[in-house]
Amino acid sequence: MNQTSLPLPEPEQAKRSSLMGAAAVISLAAAILGLFLFAWIADEMREGDTASFDLAVRAWVHHFASPGMTRAMTVISLLGYNILILELVVALAVFLLLRWRRAAAWLAVTMAGALALNLALKYSFHRPRPEPFFGVAPPSYSFPSGHALCAFCFYAVLAGLIAARINSVAMRVMIWIAAAVLVIAIGLSRIYLGMHYPSDVLAGYLAAAVWVSAVIVLDRVRGNRRKLADRRGQTLNANSE
Description:
The protein has helices at about 10-45, 50-60, 65-80, 80-95, 100-125, 145-165, 170-195, 200-240. It is mainly alpha-helical.
């Protein structure tokens, strides 16, 4: 007697498909909008039109300077790159131990692309860094902020991967809020320390949004192709019986 697996109820299948389709459409729209805004900021930066904005925000943020604030911002800044590398290794190890292989692959691909994108953009624009308020500026170029770009990619994707596996809506909201606050704080820390212009940080966020949105769209396309291939295989098997 042949055993067949019971499919999901049709309403559930339709609901899941519609949610996935909506996510893909929203991600594609976000990628296009982010790309447009990034190109606009890059053009304004090259023309020198962001200078007044950058100097005004740098001066305003510097008014809040204090020894305690400087120590806090230094630690927060480390979460955007130095400590982030350790967090990435730990997250990948935990995902693999939990057998969340798809989540580990998602995170690895996202961060590898973020690092490559960061280097490519920095060497494309060659913007010198501003004079730092605190500490020593790294030798790399300023536009876009690598801390902002990598922090956005890592914490946003990590929050999404964890939230997708939690049933509690309140817990999901808390995870997303924590990730957003952390990403914003890291960007502010780079402006406070004087390592980046504000337009560098905004460009880093936009570049990250474009990359993460593109990965989501590509993942949806890959998933749809796999489903079509599975359906064709099932149809061929059914016809051959």
